[in-house]
Amino acid sequence: MRDYLIERLYESSKKPYQKYFKKNEPWNIDKSKLMDYPEASLGLGLGNFLYNNHFDIQEKLEDHDIIHVLTNTGVSVYEEIGMQYYLLGNGKKSMYLFMVILSGTIFYPKRMSYFIQQYKRGKRAHSFHYLDFSKMLLLPVQTIQQSFNI
């Protein structure tokens, strides 16, 4: 029930967040075109992530799925919350991030050790949350991970 509630909160807040808070331009890339990127590249990694999870590209939110690829974070509700803890550790600060962390901590107090672990992982990584990943799609995932200690 709590997973459903958190997912509903996310779905109801996603459109206003995209419209009013995300100032970046959409990438204008087709999901199927990502499958044409070179082996082990970030572009192919994103394509595989989207297809494996039956997701589509979300306009202006492409970076979110890239973070999943780079950090090897799953898509369950508590893993999504953990990824926000990771990003907080990595230096990202946004109203949306704090909203997810607050609601996630309240709804998932038994996952606190996981959240703290993710925060520490983000802290150990070199700051990368602000990068323009649309220009990095040809780079190997492993190279990016090693360069930023992800």
Structural overview:
The chain has 150 residues and is mainly alpha-helical. The chain has one domain (36-147). The chain is 61% helix and 0% strand. It is built from 8 helices and no strands. The longest helix has 20 residues, at 2-21. It is globular. It starts with a helix and ends with a helix. The mean pLDDT is 91.
Q: What profile does the largest beta sheet have?
A: none
State Rg: 15 Å
The number of distinct helices, counting runs of at least 4 residues, comes to 8
Mean pLDDT: 91
Shape: globular
End-to-end distance, in Å? 33 Å
> What quaternary form is this?
single chain
Low-confidence stretches are none
Total of domains:
1
Proportion of residues in helical segments: 55-70%
> Order of SSEs, N→C?
HHHHHHHH
Protein name: Ubiquinone biosynthesis protein COQ4
Organism: Flavobacterium potami
Keywords: Ubiquinone
Tags for this model:
150 residues, mainly alpha, 61% helix, globular
Task: Present the secondary structure layout.
Elements: H1 2-21, H2 31-34, H3 42-52, H4 62-71, H5 77-89, H6 95-107, H7 112-124, H8 141-147
Concise structural overview:
61% of the residues lie in helices and 0% in strands. The protein contains 8 helices and no strands.
